[in-house]
Design brief:
alpha+beta, 2 domains, three-stranded mixed beta sheet, about 55% helix, about 15% strand, elongated
């Protein structure tokens, strides 16, 4: 494992992160501990639970509510489909 001080890691953090993403073990010394840099996989439901404490049931209710609201807004004409030409769509 490559270990760095916080100061040394800060100087070229993007390079150290890239190396960690490639599988290299990188650690940063913080006080009396070493904190490892490792990539993690995060899914939207995992993120919602970790960040906001939202349960899977709450997420399903939210998705259904948003689908209803979006359908209603499309029906009112408030949401337009993107044609691939932003300038044209903004002019309409």
């Amino acid at each position: 494992m490559t270990t760095l001080t916080i100061t040394k890691a800060r100087v070229n953090l993007s390079a150290w992160l890239e190396r960690a993403k490639q599988g290299e073990d990188i650690g940063i010394v913080s006080g009396d501990q070493i904190v490892a840099l490792r990539p993690v996989t995060v899914s939207s439901d995992d993120y919602a639970w970790r960040e906001y404490g939202a349960t899977p049931a709450e997420l399903r209710r939210f998705e259904k509510r948003m689908e209803r609201e979006l359908a209603a807004e499309r029906k009112r004409g408030g949401i337009k489909r993107f044609s691939g030409n932003l300038e044209k769509d903004l002019a309409d």
